[in-house]
Write a structure and sequence with these properties.
Radius of gyration: 21 Å
Oligomer: single chain
Order of helices and strands: HHHHHHHHHHHHHHHH
Shape: globular
Distance between the termini: 76 Å
Number of helices: 16
CATH architecture of one domain: Alpha Horseshoe
């Protein structure tokens, strides 16, 4: 009996280190949970890690990145072997443009679990903005290959959208063969993403960007672009990238004041936004439809 009690005591001491959770269920729940609900749940749980992780996810969904970072930092210290907490820390850092720290953390997560879909998606975003579009395609493909039953719906739809976006950039920078092969993959995969999650801001942004950037012969349609981008803002009014694309569309239409208003809004939300800074700088690595500033 004493041996059993001692063993139980030891297991309780080390239980934090070997903690594991159902991250797919929690990500799915987070998409349906408001911030007040998540705060209340975390408070009433007595510090349960699942409730705090859920709160961190809702913080991210609400663009409260610093609060998410601080929460995930505490969780990752308490449970250093739990991939979800370290991923949350990395994703928060990525959104605050601490790319080096985020990438290091994501590499650590994936070294332990190479099929952890949220980390694969986060790293795909980093690769994209480093202009490693092929790397982004490979990571998104890996998430798609896991199958919908092993990934939460938002990340699964996001994988198709990311795959499409990176393929579009490969087509933009590639030769005739790439434009034919990679270019054709863009709308096909965006359609798959839309079928999975038609109201996803990431998917709506992807479709809006496609209709804005594609030539008319390939399906480009400025009216549809505006419709999809406006829908994305209806779902997520703090999606900075959407304001940048709407600004570019306004510039095409000769609406300078509207252009300035959208760009100002994007930078108010996210001063380090890669797409906005790329447009303002005139580098146009990610395509400045409407011309340079």
């Amino acid at each position: 009996m004493k041996i059993y009690a001692f063993s139980l005591f030891i297991s309780l001491i080390f239980c934090q280190a070997c903690y594991s959770m159902d991250w797919v269920a929690l990500h799915t729940k987070a998409d349906k949970t408001t911030l007040p609900e998540a705060l209340k749940s975390a408070e009433q749980s007595g510090g349960a890690p699942e409730a705090r992780y859920l709160l961190g996810l809702v913080y991210l969904n609400s663009h409260r990145d610093l609060e998410a970072y601080n929460l995930f930092l505490l969780l990752s210290r308490e449970y250093p072997d739990e991939a979800g907490f370290k991923w949350g820390l990395a994703e928060s850092a990525r959104r605050m443009h601490e790319t080096g720290d985020a990438e290091k953390l994501l590499d650590e997560v994936l070294a332990r679990d190479g099929s952890f879909a949220p980390a694969l998606i986060s790293l795909a975003y980093i690769k994209y903005f480093k202009m490693d579009f092929l790397g982004s395609v490979r990571l998104a493909s890996k998430v798609i290959g896991l199958g919908q039953d092993k990934v939460d719906l938002s990340n699964y739809a996001r994988a198709y959208a990311m795959y499409a976006g990176a393929k579009g950039m490969l087509a933009h920078y590639g030769g005739i063969f790439s434009k034919a092969v990679d270019g054709l993959a863009v709308k096909t995969n965006l359609d798959k993403a839309q079928k999975l999650q038609p109201d996803s801001p990431a998917v709506l942004f992807g479709l809006g960007s496609y209709y804005l950037l594609a030539p008319a012969i390939a399906g480009g349609d400025k009216k549809k672009a505006e419709e999809y981008l406006e829908r994305a803002l209806t779902v997520d009014p703090l999606f900075a990238d959407v304001y940048v694309r709407l600004a570019q569309l306004a510039k095409i239409n000769g609406k300078k004041e509207r252009y300035g208003s959208f760009m100002k809004k994007a930078l108010e939300i996210d001063p380090g936004n890669e797409l906005a800074l790329d447009t303002i700088s005139g580098k146009c690595d990610f395509i400045c439809t409407g011309g340079k500033e």
